[in-house]
Amino acid sequence: MAHKSTNITPVAHGVSDQERWRRHGHRGGVLWLTGLPGSGKSTLAFELERRLFAAGYRAYVLDGDNLRHGLNADLGFSPADRTENIRRVGEVAALFAGAGMVVITAFISPYRSDRTAARKAAKGNFHEIFLSAGLAVCEKRDPKGLYKKARRGEISEFTGVTAPYEAPESPELTIDTGAITVEQSLRLLIDHVDRNFKLPAE
Ligand SMILES: Nc1ncnc2c1ncn2[C@@H]1O[C@H](COP(=O)(O)OP(=O)(O)OP(=O)(O)O)[C@@H](O)[C@H]1O
Ligand SMILES: [Mg+2]
Questions:
Q1: pLDDT tens-digit readout, 49-93
Q2: Is residue 37 part of a domain?
Q3: Measured between alpha carbons, how far is 27 from 57 in angstroms, rounded to an integer?
Q4: How far apart are CA 121 and CA 107, in angstroms?
Q5: Which of 43, 105, 180 to mutate for ligand 1's pocket (most ligand atoms within 8 Å of CB)?
Q6: How many domains in the chain?
Q7: Which residues pair with 159 in a beta bridge?
Q8: From ligand 2's centre to the CA of 11, what distance in Å?
């Protein structure tokens, strides 16, 4: 991304990350879910948000379809627009994480380099979570009927059919959502959050 702004001087916050974390009882950071359409990103993200909230976490979901109505309404699905979509989401997720939240993102985010940029924006507080259900399973589920449309040629550049998906090479967590239930997947996610975000009791 070309930087157009000059004469910019960032200002430091008067509240440290650690102070925010102590107030919340947990660290801030990003849980970045990635996987094919129908792999279970939205299902798991919103249920995880519910469960973490009930357990006392500050958690918030950023979901692909929701953000495309607002912040990213000007973007389509060309490679350049997908990259810009994920760049903005990565920056917003990093801001929420900086505020001390557990941010759960649910975007296909098919390009490795875009996910790497999102990781960089979050400055280390980033967990890439690969929902590894394969194409056959996801297409059979087809929760929004979009695979069918894509096969009929009614959607161009549909991930898995006419656009690529680059699987993560070293994700922090892989969940085969084609082989286990929603409940079992949530268990793995909650364990991961408890292990990595919870602060030791004082
Ligand atoms: N282990 C699992 N985890 C998540 N979803 C599962 C699992 N097993 C079955 N499913 C089902 O798979 C479907 C996943 O659909 P969902 O809308 O969550 O996918 P998505 O990844 O958000 O897709 P899109 O990229 O199109 O938004 C749901 O119908 C869900 O009930
Ligand atoms: Mg979804």
A1: 999 999 999 999 999 888 889 999 999 989 999 999 999 999 999
A2: yes
A3: 10
A4: 16
A5: 43
A6: 1
A7: 163
A8: 36
Q: What is the DSSP string of 127-195?
A: EEEEE---HHHHHHH-TTSHHHHHHTTSSSS-BTTTB-----SS-SEEE-TTTS-HHHHHHHHHHHHHH
The CATH number assigned to the domain holding 117 equals: 3.40.50.300
5 noted as active-site residue: no
Instruction: Read off the tokens for 102.
Output: 């557990």
Domain span at residue 99 reads: 17-194
Confirm whether pTM is higher than 0.70: yes
Atom 16 of ligand 1 has which residue's CA nearest to it?
40
Marked catalytic residue, from 42, 109, 132, 185: 109
Residue pLDDT, tens place only, 137-172? 999 999 999 999 999 999 999 999 999 999 999 999
Pairing mode of beta strands 59-63, 126-131: unpaired
From the CB of 83, is ligand 1 less than 6 Å away? no
Answer yes or no: is 36 within a domain. Answer: yes
* Ligand 2 centroid distance, CA of 124 (Å): 25
Residues with CB under 5 A from ligand 2 (ion): 41-42
